[in-house]
């Protein structure tokens, strides 16, 4: 499958799996994989990081800190279309990601969404309904806007094969963070720290207070 065969497909993801992507894209030039296995019960993953969904890398790193397992798949070249390196969460099968996810009890997926008229509200989904609800409550308490995404709604992270639901419990949490908020978090360390702390409290990885 030649690279130029994909040109013009702006709305559909170019690749359905990592093997397709790796045959056509150059590691270290087009993309980078970062996998930090800390054998934690909770793993933080950002499968569309770097230039794919900007600033999800820094948000995921802040949440993971030095204690939680972390996985990032980063697009390295700016100005490429979202679809060019985006493998949907249900099909994301990069081997080092699969290893980290399968070794964790629960997975927290960090994603970016378009503002679509609301650049402040984080959508929180996934099949771990208890932690999902606690994350929303913790974000609201920290004075961030957040809503629950129910199964059946778009970007709800409710598919069993979604990477956030592939941990040992088969139920994880997914964050869809709007672009405007991601830009703010990337430019304001104090706000980023506050956001990450709230997420940590919600998933039970950080003490409240």
Quickly count the domains: 1
DSSP helix fraction: 25-40%
Distance between the amino and carboxyl termini: 53 Å
Shape: globular
Spell out the CATH superfamily.
Poly-gamma-glutamate hydrolase, zinc-binding motif
The helix count comes to 6
Radius of gyration over all CA atoms, rounded? 16 Å
Helix/strand/pairing category: alpha/beta
The succession of helices and strands, N to C, reads HEEHEHEEHEEHH
Strand order of the largest sheet: 1-3-2-4-7-5-6
Q: How many β-strands, per DSSP?
A: 7
Percent of sequence in beta strands: 15-25%
CATH class assignment: Alpha Beta
**Mean pLDDT across all residues, rounded?**
93
Strand count, sense and closure of the main sheet?
7 strands, mixed
What oligomerization state is this entry in? single chain
From the coordinates shown, what is the CATH architecture?
A: 3-Layer(aba) Sandwich
Q: Low-confidence parts lasting 5 or more residues at pLDDT below 50?
A: 1-10
CATH names the topology as Aminopeptidase
């Amino acid at each position: 499958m030649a690279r130029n065969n994909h040109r013009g497909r702006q709305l559909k993801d170019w690749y359905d799996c990592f093997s397709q992507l790796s045959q056509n894209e150059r590691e270290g030039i087009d993309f980078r994989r970062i996998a930090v296995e800390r054998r934690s019960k909770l793993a933080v993953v950002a499968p569309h990081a770097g230039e794919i969904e900007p600033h999800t890398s820094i948000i995921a790193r802040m949440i993971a800190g030095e204690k939680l397992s972390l996985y990032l798949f980063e697009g390295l070249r700016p100005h490429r279309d979202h679809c060019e390196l985006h493998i949907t969460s249900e099909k994301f099968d990069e081997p080092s990601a699969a290893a980290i996810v399968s070794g964790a009890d629960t997975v927290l997926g960090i994603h970016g969404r378009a503002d679509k008229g609301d650049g402040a509200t984080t959508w929180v989904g996934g099949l771990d309904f208890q932690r999902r609800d606690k994350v929303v409550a913790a974000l609201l308490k920290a004075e961030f806007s957040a809503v629950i995404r129910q199964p059946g709604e778009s970007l709800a992270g409710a598919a069993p094969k979604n990477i956030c639901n592939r941990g040992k419990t088969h139920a994880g949490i997914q964050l869809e963070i709007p672009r405007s908020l991601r830009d703010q978090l990337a430019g304001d360390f104090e706000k980023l720290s506050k956001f990450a702390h709230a997420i940590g409290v919600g998933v039970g990885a950080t003490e409240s207070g």
